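FW: tagging you since you asked about this chain on Friday. Here's the raw sequence from the shared folder, copied in full. Didn't touch anything.
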Amino acid sequence: MRGVFDRQRFLDLLQHFIVFEEDADTGAQHKIIVGYHQFHAVNAAVEETVRASGMTDAGVLREDPGRYWAGRMHGGKQGDRRAGVVWHTQGSGKSFTMLFFAARVIRESAMQNPTLVVLTDRNDLDDQLFGQFQRCHDILAQMPFLFQPHLKDRRFNEKRHLSQNTNPKISPCSH
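HL: got it, structure written out here
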């Protein structure tokens, strides 16, 4: 109990890790609160992404280094463009972890308006992630779009489409 009610951690939880999802069939609203493994994984992934990108923002509050270890890259250098992987088991909330990561990285001032493209290896996974991101778009402060060009036109279309808008973008895309 003391862990979750640490002042900074509790504020972080309230600000970045609660989402409301509307059930498409019934219209019922569901409140989703992140699990502890997702909370720590997302925070570590955002910190590693900022470190690997080479972007910094001195004004951003960081959690104490003495917290739960979530697998930060040992010896990672600022701007080395190498971030890690978050590993989850079946049914552990990977889609929500991706959603919370996307929302946190978009809000991270050091990232300066990032573009996020989610690549998957299956169309059904595209549909699942796109549906999740669409139903919970409030936390993203934008509506995601599904971009599925024909394979032969993929590189040209992605570059042209993503360069047309300067707002943060989230696009699940099969590869």
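FW: Helices lie at 7-16, 36-53, 94-107, 123-135, 137-140, 154-163.
HL: agreed, and The mean pLDDT is 77.
FW: great, closing this out.
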